[in-house]
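User: Small ask, check this?
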Amino acid sequence: MPRVTSADVARESGVSRTTVSYVLNAKAGVVITEATRRRVLEAAERLGYTPSAAARALRSGRSDLVLCVLPDWTVGPVIDTLIDHLTTSLAEHGLSVLVHSGRGSRPLAELWRAVTPCAVLGLSPFAEAEARAMRQAGILVVGTALDEDPHPETFAVPQGAIGRLQAEFLAARGHRVLAYAAPGDDRLAAFADRRLAGVRLGCDALGMPAPLVEPVELSVGSASAAVARWRAGDQPVTAVAAYNDEVALAVLAGVRAHGLRVPQDVAVIGVDDIPAARLAAPALTTVWQAIDAQAQYLADSVVAALAGGDLPVRPDDVFHVVERDST
């Protein structure tokens, strides 16, 4: 079905396209009778007319579209929560979110030039040349980083600090031999490597041996094999820092498969505090991340920048341990 245009509205209402444009765009300083205005609006509604986003962008100087770029990561509860909160917050300000996955070979520049967003949000840092090109095109660039970042519009949750907190928490409960349950998906290496480095730093600072690292798929068989290797030898592992809650839940299943008890034989801590963490048996200790606060900060940064205001205040509490029965 062909798209309804302003020309169709003009024919239907019996007025000129110029008059239709004045009415539909609420043009100031133009005298139009109430009867004519009503006739145009009724014709537009009858035909199902919606203004072109591209034309709207040309008139206003910017679109109402925010492009959210996802790297080639697996999408789970955390990303779902962030996007849901971000979309809801921006919608309150009349902004729509287009989510783009970084998978595939198409250059990002092709996309942002085609859709002309008012802002681009990155869930990982953009290449400097890419960010510079977008800014030069008048597009606001806002993003997140996995480490501390010098750009004021970037929200950073240092992943290494999360791993170190896991190690310190387990050590404070008397554990001296730790393991690290890494994810089985290589696409998560950017997060996992930083968190593992933090666990290693925490162990080293406390005079403990380096953690024993095993990849753990989300299956009982994979987790059981990892637990067998961790428990072998003269100094068996007594606590596991997992990459995230999903991996930690797999570790719980692997520990049970060996007839071991949690936390008496093996303690387990995850990251993210997903809903399933509270329903695990035993309930999972985890490191909560401020996903809602991160999404709100990004949304507020976009709105403030578009309005020419100051950047919002960064939240202070971006992660902390939620202690439950698994430790």
About this structure: The longest helix spans residues 189-205. The chain has three domains: 6-51, 61-157+292-318, 159-289. Residues 159-289 form a domain with the Rossmann fold fold (CATH 3.40.50.2300).
